[in-house]
Specification:
Radius of gyration: 12 Å
Number of helices: 3
Structural class: alpha+beta
Protein name: Glutaredoxin
Order of helices and strands: EHEHEEH
Distance between the termini: 13 Å
Oligomer: single chain
Pfam families: Glrx-like
CATH class: Alpha Beta
Helix content: 25-40%
Number of strands: 4
């Protein structure tokens, strides 16, 4: 079950970098990819700020640019432990 949502769009090189960083901390199954072009509301909300990670449990957002350490801290807020 996904722990975070990665808001992105195809062809976005920053989104690709964000994905690569996220998979250093999370398993692929922990990341739900949401293309903002599929939803007008998401497009309006994130069109100038993608990539963005959303912690599904807390609802908090982590805006780009972010680091591996920031992702780790972001997911630890909900008690997530990769080794569980």
């Amino acid at each position: 079950m996904a722990r975070v949502v990665l808001y992105h769009t195809d062809g976005c090189h920053l989104c690709e970098q964000a994905h690569d960083l996220a998979v250093t901390v999370l398993a692929l199954d922990d990341i739900h990819h949401q293309d903002i072009l599929d939803d007008e509301r998401l497009m309006a909300q994130f069109q100038t700020s993608i990539p963005v990670l959303k912690n599904i449990k807390t609802g908090k957002l982590l805006n780009w640019p972010f680091t591996q350490q920031q992702i780790q801290e972001f997911i630890q807020e909900d008690g997530f432990n990769k080794n569980c």
